[in-house]
Fold this protein.
Amino acid sequence: MTVTRKPLTRADLAPLARAATGPRRTLAGVDRLRGGSKKGVYRLTFDDDSTSVAYVWSADEDYWDAGPSDPRDPFSHGTGLDLLTAAHDRLAAAGVRTPRLLYADATHTHLPADAAVVEDVTGGSLEETLERDPVAGRAALERLADLLATLHAQEGPAFGKVALVDNGGVSSARSCEQRVTEGALGDIAATAVRDERIAAARDDLESAVRKLSAAVRPRGRHTLVHGELGPDHVLLDGGGAPVLIDVEGLMYLDVEWEHVFLELRFHEAYDLLRTPGLDEDRLRLYRLAMRLSLVAGPLRLLDGDYPDPGPMRAIAEHNLRRALELVGRRGAVT
């Protein structure tokens, strides 16, 4: 994307807001919320001080500039109105809280893009609560553990994105471990041309991925997982209950993938989310693969015009060092 990106204005979003809430309320203000890299997220404030949140999927809002993605690939670019509505409906059926979908428009009637309006969950993020009030944060973590137990009790008939599998589709990979292995090897290749430390350790990294993958035994269980569940992807409602956001990546997968991400993002707090009975072979493969993904992904994003590159560089550097440590290499700059 080489053109200048412009956030949407009140005038731009007023027709969508009117369609979602009716004529009795007038859109008074719009704020683009920080953090979104795949879609635009806007808080809509009305003349009665009520609020909603608008999601907009357009090329201007997607800093990955990924173009069309293959829905048969569970790890393809996980964004879009169809993915949101499928995830929303599946989570609602499972009894897992996510912002209520108030309005969806795939016709481009109100904007030249797919768009949706959802409930505004105003209790702040779990990440903020953990930093501000450890006691309240612990209580929220315990409630999140219960929510995850509900989520992970759900299974699907096959491996893949919920939007695909629940409509009878079949993923392009035969198993989660195969797709993760292929992705990890691809991430090594992509990163080796960008960083000399990965290039120097490429043989060791590839050998480790293949060895760890060979140890994983086949499994027929496909668990419902969020896929990228950090404390910033959990909001709290007025009663302190956790609400999952950024759910477009919802899929049926090995539950160990979810736990590796939880472990990575929650640090010491993960102890409250830990569950017994996980497959250690899968955990070892997925820990290395996750680190490699969190190097390759941020570096790819930085090829474009992402407006806050510093944190992305830090994520890539941190995970590069951890990946090298997992194969017995030092992560220091050479």
